[in-house]
Specification:
Number of strands: 16
Number of helices: 17
Radius of gyration: 24 Å
Shape: globular
Strand order of the largest sheet: 1-7-6-5-8-9-10
Strand content: 15-25%
Largest sheet: 7 strands, mixed
Distance between the termini: 68 Å
Length: 517
Amino acid sequence: MTDDAETIDDAETIDDAETTDDAVTFRDHERLARTPAHETALDCLAAGIEAALPEPLIRNAVSVRDGTLRIEGVDGAVGEYDLDAYDRVVLLGAGKATAGAAAGVVGALGRSDREIDEGIVVTDEPPDWTGANSSDPSSTAAIDVLPGDHPLPSDQGVESTRRVLDAAERAGPDDLVLAVITGGGSALLAAPADPISVDELRALTSELLASGASIDEINAVRKHCSAVKGGQLARAAAPATTVTLAVSDVIGDPLDTIASGPTVPDPSTYADALAVLDRYDLDAPATVRERLRAGAAGELPETPIADDPAFDRSAAFVVGNGRTALDAAASAAADRGYEPLVLSASVRGEAREAGTTHVAIAEECAARGSPIEPPAVLLSSGETIVTLGDAADPGTGGPNAEFAASAGLALAEGPLGDGDGGGGGGDDGHGDGNGGGHSDPRVVVASVDTDGLDGPTDAAGAIADATTLDPDAARDALDRHDAYPLLDDADALLRTGPTGTNVNDLRAIVVEKRDET
């Protein structure tokens, strides 16, 4: 065990699973929750994130009874495994939620007579497992929690990934490998394939993330530049039995896309990856093109497909996703007397355009009671993007900040605006937001990344109403993709710190009923 590895052990995790406080709070909550609408938006987002925390998800999905491990996916799929039939149980994984999910699995097994025999997971924020003491001979099943980096791969992440691969290769035919895979694993589980270096993989990833390519396209390239993605971890573990527990951060939950599918079949090809580079005119390192061309020419083996022997003894279950967070947010809205309406769990495209569209629906709701009568909370999840394009000097921000800034601008300039451009209409820096003389806005928009980090920033997202932003400043910031300082100056950023989960973005739009007085 290396000095930089934290550990989880059975006894501790049992206690933690019973006593852990799963509350998520926004910093400066009292200031941010300045009206009932603002408070409701924040409460809905917090409830959604809490429901998607990995340990509660695992507690709901994984159980052991009479020596049988039972796993139930969100789609109702069930797998059962007789633990006595295996020589060893090995736990491997990567992603932002993997440390908590691993703790949940260890806790579930800890309530039986079976232990984890070996475990290694990689995450970007290795937790401080207070009281962990792997040197205590009474402690069993220590899980090494190793560091990686996100969103760009790093040397330490590559070293950690090599240890995961080594553990997979040690698995024997009579072993059970539990693979805990969560969002963020594509960057965290990084093992560049020859002849690509870590620096070249990092440069490639940066180009891909800025290109506007879809997650499927990005991952097609990642998989074919990797020694672990696209089913190659399962290939390393074969012929062991491999069971994947996935927490999805991808629209539609395609298992081959979550963390670039290290333990499931890969439908993409080297030719697909080359086409992505050409489609977006990416300045990829020469070694990347060299590898992809060699693969497309048949000179390198493809990533494994469904009929590969690596998957003869494998299964995969999605145990949590964006819908998990949406359902909890909807319940929180109903508990507060609002009618919840889930618009979509699959919102995608440019964040700026999505913000404007969400506001248009909220305006219709406020004016005509369609598609739902206020007071209501409109909810959505999914993953929007920010395409930098030809921006000469792009600023700071992420998709959720850009979504909130765009929504705030649309509200200020729309029928619910304050009529003079918004942004500082009252003594506290807020206008009325009603088109009338009332202090509370009728629509409040809040958007966060459930992992607590929106793009390359320290904020989870932002909250806005018709009075939050000056329209001219907002337009300028959006054009320069510089929403973070704009929202920071408006005291509108939402900060949670890393949450330990990742099920994509979550949005709450609160629409208050019209004040008839």
